[in-house]
Design brief:
With 549 residues, this protein is α/β, with parallel strands linked by helices. It contains 15 helices and 21 strands. The protein has 2 domains: 255 residues, 3-Layer(aba) Sandwich (Rossmann fold); 248 residues, Alpha/Beta hydrolase fold, catalytic domain (Rossmann fold). The strands form 3 sheets. The protein has an 11-stranded mixed sheet with strand order 11-12-13-15-14-16-17-18-19-20-21, sandwiched between helices. Helix 1 links the parallel strand 3 and strand 4. Helix 6 packs parallel to helix 13 and helix 7 crosses helix 8. The longest helix is centred in the first third of the chain and has 16 residues. The chain is elongated and about 80 Å long. The N and C termini lie far apart (58 Å).
Length: 549
């Protein structure tokens, strides 16, 4: 058995007053060693810039484990090959050598709590100036390096540092990072029974290590790409915890667990894919989070955004998010517009599930706040405005504009009814074939529901206004129609457990995309079909005047 020895050291007394950098690119094409000061120590990074990459290119950092260095960066052929084929700058960072312990030890703060947050000031770690000065060097060549698209990754202690510095990068400048990756170290909480080297996360006053978990509300957010192997002991347990905790906060997350031990069989290609690194544009592939059911369809999904403008809600932000099948050549695809709730959250697990069936989904990315008078207008504008300007995004050129859908959650669920009622006034303009109103909490739209003649699905929960939603269901003349509630579902069920998310998607797949498999999932009697797959408080379907409960 391979015995792995660790010597993790965080903010500690320096053993040496000077540092001897050891970075190398080992003769790799496009490679150079960059040296600079972090204000205390002389530092370095191994930078590999593919000559064929489209410029300016995104930047991927790889951080070594405990005791390591960047002396063999040019030998990391899998990542160098990916850098060349995809088009990104590849950087091996290097910790100070024999300063905070044996070999290279990343200077990660030890005391991290809810009160401190992730400590990211120059007094907290020498790595703060290391990263800031490294990025400042890259920023001197804006024609080559895109410092607004920075991604971090690493293994073991390098994984811990990726999580720590990734969160710091987000705190310093939210628009410069959208994702970080970890392998063989996740998130530890004091008293969780997981024992890491040097007793990390268990000091007096400690709570978390190596960063404090928080929700990010900026447009990009911060996706956690969590990788590990099942034979990795307590390190694996910390990765499992991160994969569970991060999406609970409302952050995007993707996890991959394979067989093997500590830092073995690292799937570099999957890491790069999860991070969403693309040499020509910054869209990020998304994936359902751990704890959610699988997406309804089998198509890989990508996400991006474009400035459409003309929105009325929030601060009138111009951004329209778009989710679409990665393989656009399989189109044309029907289109759906999604309306977010009052908090501004776009429920990506639900949106992804719809897109995975072969839909392009557009969603106004306006900020939160009550906007029930105008939100439905924004949702329809996302459809019509995008149709009028298909050059705004490549995916819009692969849309079948004769097949559309409307869906949304909370305020967006309420707005779905209003938008559908408006669309019914001009069927040829909007071509709406079906709607899904998820937990429409904000008001009663029974009058508007009475004008909806297309198939409609309504979902609800224990915290919602059952009477209003049931009234909308009863008033809707369109057939088929569905009223569903999973037992124990709260208002934010689609974002927390998502038990009905695949079936919301299948409803649209059935009635908009014409997928018989989706129809079977909604109306079938099998164990994994909608009314049987979960314990239901309500599962009422009405087809051709026949009521089925």
């Amino acid at each position: 058995m391979l015995r792995v020895i660790f010597a993790f050291v965080g903010v500690a007394t320096a053993l040496n007053a000077s540092n001897t950098p050891t970075c190398s690119v080992n003769g790799a094409a496009g490679g150079q060693v960059v040296t600079f000061s972090d204000g205390t120590y002389q530092r370095c990074m191994s930078l590999i810039t593919p000559s064929s990459a489209r410029k300016p290119m995104p930047i991927l950092w790889w951080f070594h484990g405990s005791g390591g260095n960047a002396a063999h960066c040019g030998m990391m052929k899998p990542l160098i090959d990916l850098a060349e084929s995809i088009g990104f700058a590849f950087i091996c960072g290097e910790a100070t050598q024999n300063v905070f312990g044996h070999g290279g030890q990343w200077n990660i703060p030890a005391k991290i709590t809810d009160e401190t947050g992730t400590p990211c000031s120059t007094s907290d770690s020498v790595e703060v100036n290391y990263m800031k000065n490294a990025l400042a060097h890259l920023a001197k060549s804006p024609q080559t390096y895109d410092t607004t698209r920075v991604f971090t990754s690493g293994c073991s202690m390098g994984s811990a540092f990726s999580g720590y510095i990734g969160n710091c990068l987000k705190l310093w400048e939210p628009q410069q990072i959208s994702a970080f990756a970890t392998h063989s170290t996740g998130l530890k909480v004091k008293g969780d029974g997981n024992h890491l080297p040097e007793n990390w996360g268990e000091c007096d006053g400690c709570k978390y290590w190596p960063f404090a978990p928080v929700k990010y509300t900026d447009k990009l957010g911060l996706k956690a790409c969590v990788f590990d192997n099942t034979g990795d002991g307590d390190f694996y347990k910390t990765s499992k915890y991160l994969a569970q905790e991060w999406p609970k906060l409302g952050n995007p997350s993707e996890s991959h667990f394979a067989s093997g031990g500590h830092c073995q069989n690292i799937p570099y290609s999957d890491i790069v894919k999860c991070l969403g690194i693309n040499g020509s544009s910054p869209p990020s592939p998304i994936s359902s989070s751990i704890g959610f059911p699988p997406p309804a369809g089998s198509m890989a999904v990508s996400a991006s955004s474009y400035d459409l403008g003309g929105f009325l809600c929030g601060k009138q932000e111009p951004t329209c998010n778009i989710y679409y099948p990665t393989q656009l050549n399989k189109g044309p695809f029907p289109i759906a517009t999604f309306g977010h709730g009052m908090g501004g959250q776009i429920i990506e697990d639900l949106v992804e599930s719809v897109a995975s069936l072969g839909f392009v989904v557009v969603a106004p990315a306006t900020s939160g706040g009550k906007c029930d008078d105008n939100h439905y207008k924004d949702m329809l504008h996302a459809l019509e405005g995008s149709k009028a300007k298909p050059s705004l995004h490549e995916a819009l050129g692969h849309v079948d504009w004769n097949r559309s859908a409307i869906f949304g959650h909370s305020m967006g669920g309420f707005a779905t009814i209003l938008a559908a009622a408006e669309a019914m006034k001009d069927p040829a303009k909007y071509n709406v074939k079906a709607i899904v109103a998820s937990h429409g909490y904000i008001g009663d739209a029974t009058k508007e529901a009475a004008t909806i003649t297309v198939p409609a699905m309504f979902t609800t929960g224990t915290e919602d206004r059952h009477g209003a939603i049931k009234g909308q269901f009863d008033a809707t003349p369109g057939r088929p129609k569905v009223l569903a509630e999973v037992k124990g579902a709260v208002h934010m069920e689609p974002a927390i457990n998502g038990r009905l998310n695949p079936f919301d998607a299948h409803f649209l797949g059935c009635h908009v995309a014409g997928l018989q498999t989706s129809c079977d999932k909604v109306y079938g009697s099998g164990a994994d079909d909608m009314c049987q797959a979960n314990t239901m408080t309500l599962c009422q379907t009405e087809k051709d005047g026949l009521l089925m409960v």
